[in-house]
Write a structure and sequence with these properties.
The complex is a heterotrimer of chains A (510), B (505) and C (114).
Chain A lengths: L3 H17 L4 H27 L1 E5 L10 E5 H24 L4 H26 L3 H19 L5 H32 L4 H6 L5 H18 L8 H7 L2 H26 L1 H4 L10 H22 L3 H16 L1 H5 L13 H37 L10 H4 L1 H15 L5 H15 L3 H26 L14 H16 L5 H6 L17
Antiparallel strand pairs in A: 1-2
Helix pairs in contact in A: 1-2, 1-4, 2-3, 2-4, 3-4, 3-10, 3-15, 3-20, 4-5, 4-10, 5-6, 5-10, 6-8, 6-9, 8-10, 9-10, 9-13, 10-15, 12-13, 12-19, 13-15, 13-19, 15-17, 15-18, 15-20, 17-19, 17-20, 18-19
Chain B lengths: L2 H22 L5 H29 L4 E5 L5 E5 L2 H24 L6 H20 L3 H19 L5 H32 L18 H16 L10 H4 L5 H10 L1 H17 L1 H6 L3 H21 L3 H21 L3 H32 L10 H4 L1 H15 L5 H15 L4 H26 L8 H8 L8 H19 L7 H11 L5
Helix pairs in contact in B: 1-2, 1-4, 2-3, 3-4, 3-9, 3-14, 3-20, 4-5, 5-6, 5-10, 6-7, 7-10, 9-10, 9-14, 10-13, 12-13, 12-18, 13-14, 14-16, 14-17, 14-20, 14-21, 16-18, 16-20, 17-18, 17-20
Chain C lengths: L2 H22 L3 H22 L10 H32 L23
Helix pairs in contact in C: 1-2, 2-3
The chains are: A mainly alpha (510), B mainly alpha (505), C mainly alpha (114).
């Protein structure tokens, strides 16, 4: 089981190699390392499948002192999502950064920073204590900003700086929380912290600070200000990485903090204040779904539209905190409480997965369009459906998944969340989910409608797009559609209880 | 994995694969495209025929089932009801494709058009074969998505506006349908369609929740089946090319909605159980309102296709009427009308397309004397119109007769009154057209440009690819009425369906 | 009131001061400085936890954490300064004009789509 370390080490090694190399070798090495990481991640899957979770103490030092790596079903999904999207985006980037001299220069920087970012992401999913999570989150954040400013346009620099300030502030809030937590508990390990968590002013403040920091990083509604400019001004492959992967890392950590470290505060075991924190997050999430989608409908630039769509789609993720904050007894119908908690988990993880794939596909497709048309103005997209059918198809497939229509992973996500909402008697979340789906449909079909408008004047010539770019975008969209048919395996790997612990016995039927 | 597994999949994928290949075909390979289309359609018709033969003659149960891990199975199953719908859609797909090849000769973006056309038929096949509510929903929503590009095919502002209207209607109630499906599954667990319904077996089912879910499901289905007041998209969608209108009205969309109503009432709730819950009366009110309202609005239209569209609004509700009237004969009538309305209405749209293409006739006041200029087309038009009105022995008469009988059986005499009123209204909007076409003189010479296009066809009124499908559907509708007593006529099959669904799956 | 409490209150005060500065100051350099003040607070808090068990022996873990934290904070600050300099060069603008002012997302309300 030593190779769990390679999941983190390989991308970092790759980053070093890419930094040293010059010319064409950079992209080749980058792709090679991407494939290696994917292979290692896939290789971990059987172990997780049979054991439920794997833990490795680095250097043989036990938990309180040493650094441990901890992988469970939840982390595996985030790892795999990152690896799949990472490899495909890498293939795309090889074409994207080869288009001209200016992009060549960007590409030389893209690979080392992206592999660094990847290593940070994998580290977040593997780390077992709150402080290492902070360090890796910072690695992720700094390299994400580095990727944002890759094109060096003023807009991207300004957006990148705003992103950096928000990220720094958020991590510092998190670090303060870590300090308080260590002062109160003398522990850093997620599981050990969760085991003897007590309610005191110090732990409550720590909880608030950590959650607050992670919310800013995940761009939940009032803290989303940094996301649209950063995600829309970056080069296309970077936008895909930022929207599909980077925001998910802080969300993952939030899940860990919420369900593993502070079950005493967030579960129903604790006291019930007037507004339970879970309900509060759910409300913000619901608002984000509606507000983000509405903003997306108003945009006239494709990449900005997709970026606002990310704000909206991220909102769905926060519904889980509200769904799981009600007490067990509230569920009606024949299905018991564990059933709908499992549904809520599956829905959320599937949403992470489907949004990752679909959003990456959308941004990559937008990159192809921008390359072909020279702009990402929606008005320029006349008759694209006739002239670039594959890209239109990709946009449509990814859009279908975002809307949560069958057949797609997004449908599974929405189905599960809806069922969890209805089975637990919280029908108002069902209303939010449905409204969000309709608004999503509004902006997806806004894009598609433009592609059907026939061109009036003589057709503006399109620049040819390398088939590798088109095909990787298509592959992501298709993957998203196909993975909707295999929900069973996911459910078996996911946490079933409220405490976020993975199901020890396999095959509990939801 | 025998033929019972593969045959439904072959029927489903014959159009799916065709559609996907057509998407990647270059625009100018029209011959290959036509060959592919026809080959796919032939495979589908043959597959449906085989399944019908296997099911009816040997009682073979065709079933495709695999788990999706969502607490439900993906289930395709051939029962008698689905057989009726799938044979209708596969045969009409064959004819409509032929028609569309001729109709769109030389226009732009044909690959895209035929690709989505095939996907649309795939979706309606899936709707027909779906063996549970969830599979039904999957294909039902898929249908919405693949019809949109067909509606906006021309890309004109009107087309885009119509497409947007269609989407808003379909997507918003699609969401309502999803809530209904999810809720019902949460309440009743996973279940398949069973003739006679499954819900009456549930003892502790709360009455109120079942009522709300029924409302959600019917609202979710009401847009596609064009029930008042959610019918608005249908006349708007008339901007699409004629084969699309034919497809929307006769084969895919509207039928999918009506079929869904049948499934929900007959196979989920069960007619008796639904009546016991008091759910059928409100539905009956809506259905009757739609029948009358559609006919009245049709009277007011001057645009030919819009008049036909409102006629569809009215006629499709006959199918739903079969589901809400309690007498068993009404169910038979409604089922038969599923097929009858399909072949009659598609004939009318084919004719309207021919009129528009060869003579530029779009409005009813332009139809004066056209019978003399285009006798064949107008003969076919007349056959279908008379069938719609319900003149014996046409197909429409047969279904109306059975619906009325069912009403009398159950002591619901209002059904007869509704049918009589509706028939009068049908006559009021079809007969003037026929009168104008046959008995009024040709008022003006058609402009030379359209005539010159007509010369290309030689001695025929229109290209044979347009005429042959029209002729075929008109003859079908004539035969369906004349030979209604035959064992394998639509009515005969409907009777079989009704009789057989007790014992057969 | 132990020494530990004294230090941790001072740390919280420092962090609060930093947050205040971050919100109220528009000058980009000052914003970066405010962030560093928050960082200072966080480090003080961490280092004071080493003294938690009343000086019997200092806990080594917080020391390691603070060292790591300082490295992270320094690199982030350096990065931010480099960005500010670059923006200044490209805009020909003094850094006191906050960059976020000219809202780069043009949300044109015209819905005159197709």
């Amino acid at each position: 089981m030593t190779h769990m370390l390679w999941v983190v080490l390989l991308p970092f090694l790759g980053a070093l190699c890419c930094l040293i190399l010059r010319g064409r070798a950079v992209a080749g090495t980058g792709i090679l390392f991407s494939l290696a990481v994917l292979a290692v991640c896939t290789n971990l899957l059987p172990g997780i499948w049979t054991q439920g979770q794997i833990r490795v103490e680095l250097g043989g030092w036990a938990a309180p002192l040493g650094i441990g790596l901890h992988l469970d079903g939840l982390g595996t999904f985030f790892l795999l999502l990152t690896a799949i999207v990472g490899v495909l985006v890498g293939l795309y980037a090889a074409g994207f950064f080869a288009q001209d001299k200016k992009h060549n220069a960007m590409g030389r920087h893209f690979w080392p920073i992206w592999l660094l970012l990847w290593g940070g992401l994998n580290g977040v999913y593997l780390c077992s204590d709150v402080f290492n999570a902070y360090v890796l989150l910072e690695v992720t954040g700094l390299s994400a900003v580095g990727l944002t400013v890759l094109s060096k346009t003023t807009a991207s620099l300004v957006a990148g700086l705003r992103y950096l300030l928000a990220a720094m502030f958020a991590s510092l809030m998190y670090l303060l929380g870590v300090g308080l937590l260590y002062a109160a508990c003398g522990q850093l390990d997620f599981v050990l912290l969760g085991q003897d968590m007590t309610q005191s002013p110090a732990t409550l403040t720590a909880f608030g600070l950590m959650v607050f920091g992670l919310l800013v990083k995940t761009a939940l509604l009032p803290f989303h200000f940094w996301l649209p400019p950063a995600h829309s001004s970056a080069p296309a492959p970077v936008s895909a990485i930022l929207s599909a992967l980077v925001v998910k890392a802080s969300f993952f950590l939030l899940l860990r903090i919420w369900f593993t470290v502070f079950p005493a505060l967030t579960g129903q075991a604790g006291s019930s204040p007037v507004l339970p924190p879970g309900l509060f997050l759910g409300l913000l999430g619901g608002l984000a779904v509606l507000w983000g989608s509405l903003q997306a409908v108003r945009q006239i630039r494709l990449k900005l539209l997709i970026a606002y769509s990310t704000v909206g789609q991220l909102g769905y993720l926060f519904l889980i905190f509200a769904l799981l904050s009600v007490s067990h007894g509230a569920g009606g119908g024949p299905s018991g409480a564990t059933d709908w908690t499992a549904m809520a988990w599956t829905g959320t993880v599937f949403h992470v997965f489907s949004h990752g794939l679909a959003k990456a596909a959308l941004f990559l497709a937008a990159g192809c369009l921008a390359l072909a048309m020279g702009t990402d103005d929606l008005n320029a997209m006349r008759n694209i459906a006739g002239r670039m059918p594959v890209i239109t198809f990709t946009l449509a497939m990814a859009g279908v998944s975002l809307m949560g229509l069958p057949p797609s992973a997004g449908f599974v996500a929405k189905w599960m969340l809806l069922r969890a909402a209805l089975a637990s008697g919280q029908w108002w979340w069902a209303v939010v989910i449905i409204l969000g789906g309709l608004l999503t449909a509004a902006y997806v079909f806004k894009i598609l409608a433009y592609t059907f408008v026939p061109s009036q004047d003589e057709t503006v010539p399109l620049r040819p797009v390398p088939p590798a770019m088109t095909l990787t975008a298509l592959a992501l969209a298709l993957l998203c559609a196909v993975s909707g048919f295999r929900a069973e395996e996911v459910i078996a790997l996911l946490p079933h209880g409220l405490d976020g612990s993975p199901l020890s016995a396999q095959g509990g039927s939801p | 994995m025998s033929m019972t597994f593969w045959l439904p999949l072959i029927v489903l994928s014959s159009s799916l694969v065709t559609g996907l290949i057509i998407f990647v075909l270059p625009e100018e390979r029209s011959r290959v495209r036509t060959m592919l289309n026809m080959a796919g359609a032939t495979v589908k018709v043959a597959g449906v025929f085989l399944m019908a033969w296997g099911l009816l003659a040997h009682g073979i149960a065709y079933e495709v089932r695999f788990t999706m891990g969502l607490g439900f199975d993906f289930l395709l199953r051939v029962d008698l009801l689905s057989l009726a719908f799938v044979s209708l859609s596969s045969n009409l797909w064959f004819l409509t494709t032929l028609y569309a090849v001729g109709y769109l000769e030389g226009s732009e973006n044909r690959s895209r058009f035929f690709g989505f056309f095939s996907l649309c038929v795939t979706a309606s096949t899936g709707v027909a074969l779906a063996g549970n509510l969830i599979t039904f929903f999957i294909f039902y929503e898929f249908l919405t998505l693949v019809t949109y590009p067909l509606v906006v095919h021309k890309g004109t502002p009107q087309a885009l506006a119509a497409g947007r209207t269609y989407l808003w209607y379909a997507m918003s109630v699609g969401a309502v349908l999803l809530v209904g499906v999810v809720w019902l599954q949460a309440l009743a667990g996973p279940f398949d369609f069973v003739s006679g319904g499954v819900l009456h077996a549930m003892e502790h089912a709360p009455r109120q929740e079942l009522t709300v879910i029924f409302a959600l499901l019917i609202i979710g289905l009401s847009v596609k089946s064009a029930l008042v007041p959610l019918h608005g998209w249908l006349p708007a969608a008339m901007v699409a090319p004629a084969p699309v209108s034919a497809l929307l009205h006769a084969v895919a969309v509207v039928k999918a909605g009506a079929f869904g109503v049948l499934r929900v009432v007959l196979d989920v709730y069960g007619k008796d159980h639904a009546a016991a819950l008091g759910l059928l009366t409100p539905l009956a009110v809506v259905v009757v309102a739609t029948i009358i309202f559609g006919s009245l609005r049709a009277l007011m239209q001057n645009d030919l296709k819009r008049r036909l569209a409102y006629s569809t609004v009215s006629q499709v509700s006959y199918i739903a009427l079969g589901a809400v009237v309690l007498g068993p004969l009404a169910t038979v009538g409604g089922l038969a009308h599923l097929v009858h309305q399909g072949i009659m209405k598609i004939t009318l749209f084919f004719c309207a397309g021919i009129l528009a293409e060869s003579r530029g006739i779009h409005r009813i006041d332009q139809m004066d004397g056209v019978g003399r200029a285009m006798p064949l087309t107008m003969t076919l038009f007349t056959i279908a119109s008379l069938g719609m009105i319900g003149v014996p022995p046409m197909a429409g008469f047969v279904s109306k007769w059975y619906l009325a009988q069912g009403g009398i059986q159950a002591g619901q005499d209002w059904v007869v009154a509704v049918l009589a009123t509706s028939s009068l209204l049908n006559a009021a909007y079809f007969l003037p057209m026929l009168h104008a076409a046959w008995f009024k003189p040709l008022p003006f010479k058609p402009d030379p440009e359209t005539l010159s296009r007509g010369i290309v066809h030689g001695r025929l009124e229109a290209p044979w690819t347009l005429l042959v499908p029209t002729l075929a559907t008109a003859l079908f509708s004539l035969a369906a009425g004349m030979f209604a007593g035959w064992e394998w006529s639509p009515l005969g099959v409907a009777e079989k369906i009704f009789a057989g669904r007790g014992s057969m799956p | 009131m132990t020494t530990f409490h004294l230090y941790s209150f001072a740390a919280m005060l420092l962090a609060a001061l930093g947050v205040y500065g971050l919100i109220t100051r528009r000058h980009l350099l000052r914003k970066v400085m405010a962030l560093n003040i928050i960082a200072g607070g966080a480090f003080l808090l961490l280092i004071s936890t080493a003294y938690r068990n009343q000086g019997a022996f200092p806990d080594p873990v917080p020391h390691a954490m603070v060292l790591t934290g300082i490295v992270v904070a320094i690199s982030a600050t350096g990065f931010a300064l480099a960005l500010i300099q670059r923006i200044q060069k490209q805009l020909g603008q003094r850094p006191d004009q906050e960059a976020g002012d000219e809202n780069p997302d043009q949300t044109e309300t015209s819905r005159s789509g197709p």
